[in-house]
Specification:
Strand 4 and strand 5 form a beta hairpin. This protein has one domain (about 1-115): Alpha-Beta Plaits, CATH 3.30.70. The N and C termini lie far apart (about 40 Å). The radius of gyration is 14 Å and the shape is elongated. With about 120 residues, it is of the alpha+beta class. The strands form 2 sheets. Strands 3, 4, 5 and 6 form a 4-stranded mixed β-sheet that branches. It has a two-stranded antiparallel sheet with strand order 1-2. The protein contains 4 helices and 6 strands.
Length: about 120
C-alpha cells in the first residue's frame, strides 16, 4: 500500500514500509519501550519482539478519504515505568520524526500496549 501526499510541487508516494521504518525507529528510541510486537500479538500468543527489519508488522498505517494519515503502534513496555508517560512520549516523537523526515503530518498516533515485560 502507498500513501499519497499532495504538495505544491506535485505528488509524493511513500510505501508503508518506509513510513513504518521511520515510526519504528522513533518508537524504540523511547525510554521504557522493550520493543515492538505484531498487532496480533495476543491472539497469536507469540512472544517475539520485532527487529529493525520487521517494524512493518508492529505498525499499522492507514489513510482515510480526507487524505489524513493515521498510525497505530503496538509495543511492550518495561515493568515499573509509567505507561501513560511512555505513550505520550511515543506520540510526540513519532509525529515530530514523520514531520521532519518525511514532510507530512500525522492526524493520529495510537499506541497499543500489548504487554509488560518483567525482568
Amino acid at each position: 500500500m502507498t500513501i499519497n501526499i499532495q504538495t505544491p510541487n506535485g505528488q509524493i508516494s511513500l510505501t508503508t514500509d518506509v513510513i513504518a521504518t521511520v515510526v519504528g525507529a522513533a518508537v524504540t528510541d523511547n525510554y521504557g519501550v522493550v520493543g515492538m510486537v505484531s498487532k496480533s500479538f495476543i491472539r497469536d500468543n507469540i512472544t517475539e519482539i520485532l527487529k529493525k527489519d520487521n517494524y512493518a508488522k508492529g505498525v499499522v498505517i492507514s489513510q482515510d478519504a480526507d487524505d489524513e494519515v493515521m498510525v497505530d503502534v503496538y509495543i511492550v513496555v518495561t515493568y515499573g515505568t509509567k505507561i501513560s508517560v511512555i505513550c505520550q512520549n511515543i506520540q510526540q516523537t513519532v509525529k515530530y520524526n514523520v514531520e521532519q523526515l518525511l514532510g507530512f503530518e500525522l492526524s493520529y498516533v495510537n499506541v497499543h500496549v500489548q504487554g509488560v515485560k518483567v525482568d
